[in-house]
Amino acid sequence: MSKVYDVIIIGAGPAGLSAGLYAARAKMSTLILEKEKNGGQIVTTDEVANYPGSIHEATGPSLIARMVEQCNEFGAEIKKDGIVDLSLEGDIKTLTTESGEVYQTKAVVIATGASPRKIGCPGEKEFVGKGVSYCATCDGDFFTDLEIFAIGGGDTALEEAMFLTKFARKVTVVHRRDEFRAAKSIIEKAEKNEKVEFLMNSVVEEIKGDGIVTSIVFKNTVTGELTEVEADEDDGTFGIFVFVGYLPQTALFKDKVEMDATGYIPTDADMKTNIPGVFAAGDVRVKSLRQVVTATADGAIAAIQAEKYIDEKFH
Ligand code: NAP
């Protein structure tokens, strides 16, 4: 526990990797801790069409691989380890990890992102990986020539529904209201796709099966009527892809950093949280646009502000 890092970044998604790049390039000793796979949500995306300069062959995984390579090139360490406890008060912050390591650092960048929200209905948990999925890129292929229900009414639900038509015979978008939240341009594109159908004013009440999903029960949000849809006899099953938004990964920071009522961390324009030396970047932050381009911008700002903070505090 002797080394005191300049910056420890929690999370290796676009925000964390960008913070790592900028911190390492500023010659700060930099450690990025990631409890799962590098990349966060973007590695579940097949196409990254709206990150400037990222066209043609750009996929989520390829973009992240290049970001990781760039971090390594400038000397940022990246380790796979989850944090189980942390102390953020005081000039030197302490982070204890699952592997039993205790790290010390002058500044922390929280870049833990957000993860898919669950429907919360009976059967959902039980059938994850057996018909229920949160990632079209990862699991779409399993449903080649089968039917799929895509749950949600935002940009993700409609975009992923269209992507899933590459595999599925038919994709039915199920939304709880009669109006989509998604952008007009995305709705129009989905409406033109002959393999996409829509079931409005409906929520999933229950998912049933026997080892794999065999039926789904919908409740009409206007009439309250329940309808059970069973798998086509020849198919035996179908896919349920859930795209009902995201939840911030901030449980670890409860009572340690200020959060809003939904668990996102407010910052100022310099990515500063309410705790000196603690910054937040990317989807975990209160913000109006959660995209790779805004996450990487946040990460850069957080790293540069961490450098400024360390200069003023320790030199
Ligand atoms: P979102 O915009 O929060 O939409 C979530 C959808 O799920 C909403 O339609 C919501 O219904 C529905 N929902 C929430 N809880 C539900 C439940 N328990 N049961 C059934 N439905 C439920 O999430 P998102 O679509 O993942 O998008 C997240 C952010 O990423 C947005 O800012 C979006 O613009 C952005 N994004 C952008 C792009 C792009 O620019 N190409 C692509 C993907 C995502 P209500 O509408 O009734 O609330």
Descriptive tags:
FAD/NAD(P)-binding domain, 315 residues, 6 helices, five-stranded parallel sheet, seven-stranded mixed sheet, alpha/beta
Please provide a written account of the structure.
With 315 residues, this protein is α/β, with parallel strands linked by helices. The chain folds into two domains: 4-115 and 246-314, FAD/NAD(P)-binding domain (3-Layer(bba) Sandwich); 132-242, FAD/NAD(P)-binding domain (3-Layer(bba) Sandwich). It contains six helices and 17 strands. It has helices at residues 14-25, 60-73, 136-139, 155-164, 184-192, 292-314, and strands at 4-10, 30-34, 77-80, 83-87, 93-97, 102-110, 114-116, 132-133, 147-151, 170-174, 196-199, 202-210, 212-220, 226-230, 239-242, 246-248, 278-280. Strands 1, 2, 3, 4, 5, 6 and 17 form a seven-stranded mixed beta sheet that branches. A five-stranded parallel beta sheet has the order 8-15-9-10-11. The site of NADP nicotinamide-adenine-dinucleotide phosphate (NAP) has 20 residues, from α4.
